[in-house]
Structures are given as C-alpha cells and as structure tokens.
Amino acid sequence: MIAAPESLQSVLDGAFAGIAQAREAFTPRLTPREVGTIVSVATGVAKVTGLPNVGFEELVKFPGDALGIAFNVDEDEIGVVLLGQYWNLHSGDEVERTGRVMDVGVGDELLGRVIDPLGRPLDGSGPVAARERLPIERPAAAIMDRAPVTVPLQTGLTVIDALIPVGRGQRELILGDRQTGKTAIAIDTIVNQRGENVICVYCAIGQRASAVAKTIAGLRDKGAMDHTIVVVTEGNDPPGLAYIAPYAATSIAEHFMDAGRDVLIVYDDLTQHARAYREISLLLRRPPGREAFPGDIFYIHSRLLERATHLRPELGGGSLTALPIIETEAQDISAYIPTNLISITDGQIYLSPSLFELGLLPAVDVSMSVSRVGGRAQRAAYRAVAGDLKLAYAQFEELETFARFGARLDTDTRRIIAHGQRIRACLKQSEFAPVSVPGQIAVLLALAAGLFEPVPIDRMTDAEHAVQEAAATVPTEVGARLNTSATLSAEDRATIVQIARNALMGFQPQPQSATEARAGPNRQRRPTPEAERDVAPKATPVPEEKS
Q1: Arithmetic mean of pLDDT, 419-431
Q2: Active-site entry in 120, 372, 414, 415
C-alpha cells in the first residue's frame, strides 16, 4: 500500500524537528589535546618532544594515521616504536596522544582470517568486524586461578604423543637448526585439532611471505583454517610490528580461553622476535648486554609465555597451550636465547639435523627432548606401553653406536638392535598425516608384543599402515575407553593385539615345510632329476699305459 503524500510530509517534518532540537541541545566543549613534535626519525623508531604526560607503552598517533608506542619515557623526550610505514614522517611533524594502550580486535569473527598485529586483514576477504577489543599486554593469570595440566593435547605424531606428551595448558618449546622441520610439527599439530574443539592461533614473526603463503595453503587444503587464526608479520615489516605480534596473538587466544575454550598458539619463531626487540633497543640507545641483547630480553619472553595456562573450573576451565619455536645455530642449545626459553617452558622437543639428513622424519631426538608435565598429561593407554618403549629405544641408540665399530655381537644384542630399528621405523611419519589415538595405540601395542619382529625392515612402513587401518575396526566401547583416562585392561589389550596380529598376517615370512625344517639350514637338499640332467657329466680319467 502506497503511503499518502500527507503522511510522508509529516514524517519528514518530524525528522527535521528532531534534528533541530538536538542541534539546540548540543553544547560545544573545549577538549584539551596534548601535541608533541618529532625530533628525529630512524629505522622503525622516532624521538618525540612535547608530551610530558605520556605513559609507558601508550599509543601515540602520527600524521597519516601512523601509530607508535611510547617505549622510552625520559625527562626531555620519549622514544617511540613505530608500528607502520614511516617514510612520510619528518622532523617537525605533530604527534598526538591517544590516551590508550595498544589493543587488538578479538572474537569469533577472526576465525579463518589472516590479519596483521594491528588487526588489519591480509587475506582480501574484507574488513574484520570484531565486536570486542583487548589490550595486547595483559597480566598473566594468578597462581590460585590455575589448575593442573591433566588433559592431553594430541599432536597426531606418535613420537610426541607416546614419548614427549603435551598437555592442554603446557608450554612446550620446539627448537632445532634451520630446515629441520620445526614448523612442520606445529602445523601437523594444528591440523590434528580438527574436530577436537580446539581453537588454534598461528603467529608468524618476521617470516618470508612465500613461506607464510605455503603454510596457509597447507592449512586450507587440510580444512584447518576453519578453527585457525593466522597473525602475520613479514620480514620487510617494521621491527615494531614483529615485536607486538606475539602479544597481539596471545590476547586473541586469551579471549577464547576466558570463554572456557581450549586454545593452541604457535609462535614461529621467537628468535626473530628477540632480534626485532634487540634492533629496537639498540636504536633507542638502550645499553646492550650479552650478544648485544638488552638486559630485559628474558622478561619479554617470560611475561609472554606465562600467559599460557589451564584455568580452574570456577573460571571456565579454559586452557592456552603454547608451542614457541626457536632456531639454534650449529646445534648450540646453550646459546643465550635457547637457554632462556628452555628455562621458561615446561619442556622441549629437539630436532636433530643428523636425523633429518637420514630421512628420519619427524627428526625428533628423543634423548634430548623432555616433557616436564610427563605422564600426567597422557592417556593411560599410552602410559601402559610408552615407558618400556622409551627404554628400549634408548638401549637401541646406545648399542647402535657401539655396533658401528664392527664388533661381534651376541644374540641378545642383535635382538635389541633389530627391535630398535622397528621402533624407529614406526616413529617415522609423513607431513600432514596425523594418526588417530586408536591407530597409535595399536602400533605401540604391536611393538610391545613383538609382532613386528618377523616383518622385514623394508616393509615396516606398509605393515605400520596396515595396523593403523585395522585399528578403525576396534570395537566402539574399546575405542571409547582409549580416549579416556581409564587404565587399559587385559581384555582390551588382547583385543587390540589380536587385531594387529591379523593385520600383519600378510607380512609374515612363508613357513617352511616339515621336510625342509628337519633338513636344517646347513644340510644340502638332493637335486631334482631336471637339475641333474642340466649338470654336465664329469670326465673319467684315462689310466696311463705301463712301459
């Protein structure tokens, strides 16, 4: 029904009357602004005067909507860390206080998005409409607000879930030389959280754009971006963005933890973060210390990783699990930054370049890796077999080194080495190929029961995959108990072992016949008539004539 012209005119009159009333009620106010002046601009930092009341880490605004953080608050001037492009800034430009600290948008709207530490989208999917904002620097949860770490975070990697378990709320360091598979372990862990109700945040700090694009493409192909948020700073970004990136990513993750959800955050990597902070500190004339790092380099990482925790049920029971990554140089884990992170975290996963060169992937050095939470964050089914497995693997590594000298080995030593070789073969795993809990338990139980011993070493990969596929036929009630903290009963163990034995039937060597078994390995068998015909007759010697 079309409205009459008289009614439309009355609506317009009412709207204009309301506007006139609001205009008359408005009283302009004088708002004082504190404005300073740029003294000098360097690479990623600026010196500013004229802001006497500015606070530490307060956000300041430059011309062109460029932002900075007040870092050095001196009596006469302040040192500002710039958070964006600073090519258009010059001495004499005005600087304005904002009265707030640096914050970032948080919420479910960020799931599946790629953003920078300022919350700006980088994936070309439109603006991020976050309904809530949190400061990037927040105090860690109090000790009395924390609960013990008891729930495992399954990585899908057998070598980690069985020997170096990670719990929800734990801080587990991943360290190793360049190109040893550190990021691959973190990405496999993110992929394995699909369907586990775990939110993942991947923070790339100072990475190459091509490497980040490859990682995001892998997450999309595996359907992991639905539960993942990616925070990116590239190598050509100002050092200030690299410095605030892990703090912004942690605030995004803490929003979900405060809502009672489980969150996994990956810092890739904190070596670049430490270098960015060293660059900023040296440009701001802070006194250098060991390896030119400032004295508070330990504090910037400790206050970051202390925010990872497991909250009490009264506070929602959420958890934040941190997987920081550190790059070592020439396998030197006693360097400044690695030792700092080892002392802050609850364990470390060390990747050996020697194992990587041999193709033993993931190249986890079990002897140098540890989880200080231990079996408390591991399912009982793993604990039933993991202890003997780690001891057998350690014995194998010792004997393997000894056997390289060519010494003659007794039967028990050869048996231990053969068993260790099969353990190592079962711990090998391809990238983007996580293994389910029943599949891992079935393989581990088959190893403990010695079912892989008759399998040739060159067929171990196929045999392991056969056991993993057969684990899908585990009875539903048995599979449900594997995912709980219930102890593995003898009946459940026998059921899984029998399924693994049936799966390995095709990999057993063919049994000998009774006649061949009685003949033994050293007794020669009589040749067949066909073989006798093929053999040329021996020449008969001619007797010599008598003189």
Answers
A1: 93
A2: 372
